[in-house]
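Handout, tutorial session.
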Amino acid sequence: MSSLTLSGQPAPAASDPATPPPRTVGSRHVGRWVAAAVVVVLVLWALRSVALNPAFGWPTVAQYLGTGAVLRGLATTLWLTAATTVLGFALGIGLAAMRLSANPVLSSVSWAYVWLFRSTPLLVQLLFWYNIGALYPRLSLGIPFGPSFGSTDSVHLIGPTLAALLGLVLHEAAYAAEIVRGGILGVDAGQAEAATALGMTRARVLRRIVLPQAMRSIVPATGNMVIGTLKGTSIVSVIAVTDVLYAVQTIYNRTYEIIPLLLVATVWYVILTSLLSVGQYYVERYYARGAERSLPPTPWQRLRARVAGGAA
């Protein structure tokens, strides 16, 4: 006999505890697995083709990968990348501050600088600095429209290495200025106004409130630009700066083994960009602390979790 509820309707029958719950069946995703299998086959085919093709000259690659000339060129590439990044961002931060200034002169000069150096190819800039002696045979220090305190021959002052550094730094500063400016503008202006209302100085607001939040958008773009700078230093080989690419070019001009020597440079660029990508990941993870409740797991943590899940 069924019982009635207060509304006069029959009460729902109690579920039988002995009845098993309905079984849940996940989606099969057949198309996804077929696509994955096709991709794996294509990747294995490509790796096999590259590994077994004698035209790549892998024994020659192994022979020259750690030679002294290549390592010296690699050292030049590394210090050019580091110096360009540090000096370029130091100048870029100043340009970003000028662009955000209420002073129309400073803002206009910063805009003109960014416009000019972003509009000119890097190769043209390098060739310009390399041939600066044709425009200014002698450089002097003095008061404008006044006496000079000394002069020097620009040909001896600006050599290939300094011309490469000047071209790279001035070119990168234009992009760094826009990265920093975009990161600062991405922070809610109300936070800076609230901090100013509490009596904090503008410098302290910038250092303690704005920049820590702006770094979340600055770091990814900066990491990409540093990696681009590392590979972009290869262009200095056109003005005879002995970077890693110029080093392998010097070798294959003597041995005529062009493909294996280009692969030597490629392997080193892949290694360095991979290391920079790992560093970028951990820097981004560090600055994500204030935006997420918990930090994303590192690749090693993900691997350990999958291994533990598979073992369980």
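The second record follows below. Compare its token runs with those of the first.
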Amino acid sequence: MLLKSHSKVNFECGTDEAGRGCLAGPVTAAAVILPKSFKNAILNDSKQLSEKKRELLKPVIELDALTFGVAHVYQEEIDQINILNASILAMHRSIDKLNPIPEYIIVDGNKFKPYNNIPFETIIKGDGKYLSIAAASVLAKTYRDEYMNQIHEEFPMYNWKKNKGYPTKEHREAIKKYGITKYHRKSFRLLPEQLKLDL
């Protein structure tokens, strides 16, 4: 059973990101403030849910949330500032979109940077503990998947529709065969060391 809130404030926002371990595409974050009355029996950490359930939950969360925001940080920026900073930046940008402004922020994971002096707490495996973080994890994942499905049309040989840019065997084989695209993160080890790429 997921908990409703961590603090006593009215506007507590949960935030989470998706796509941190991917070789291609953006890292995407969402921030969500749910009403105190929010209930949902299916909602859980997005990794525990099937794609079908995530797709069903997305409109429910968007409709029921007091406010939500989603932001992508693309590969060029990831390569400049590194994936950890890009993940936190994506969370900050998703919080920028919230209205009302949160009074307290709960973050999935153990790394965050202060946001406009709003008190925050990082919570390891928070997406499996708090409804608002679980809701943010579902939005981050569904919006990112949607984006990866779109760019799949441009470069179908990497099968991003299926692997969403994660380092699957198939994705690595395609990189070995076709090289990299403008969507690949050049700062990442795209292939194991023994398979050096001529860029």
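Points raised in discussion: The mean pLDDT is 94.
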